[in-house]
Amino acid sequence: MGDLNSNRIGYKWRSSKWFIVATVTIALFIESFLYGFLVPILPYMFRNRLNLDISQTQRLTSAVLSLHGFISAVSGPVIGHFADKTLDRKTPLLLSLAGCIAGTIMVACSRLLPFLFLGRILQGVAGSTAWIVGLATVADTLGQDNMGTVMGVIMSFVNAGMISGPMVSGIMLEVAGYWLTWCVPLLVLVVDVIARLLMIEAPEESSSDSSSEVAEATSLLPQQERSNSHDASTTIGFWRFMLSDIRVVTTLIVAISCTGMNTSFHTTLALHTQEAFGWGTSRVGFMFFLLAMPAIILGPFAGMLRDRIGVKIPATISLILQAMMMGLLGAAGNPNLPWASFQNRGPALFIAGIIAMGTLRPFVSGIGPVELTAVVKTHEKQEPGIFGPRGGYSRVFSMTDVAAHAGLTIGPVVSGALSEKFGYATMSWTLGSLYLSLAILVLIFLGSGSRSKGGKAKTEQEDLDSQSV
Question: For a tag on the chain, would you pick the N or C end, based on fewer CB atoms within 10 A?
Answer without folding.
Answer: C
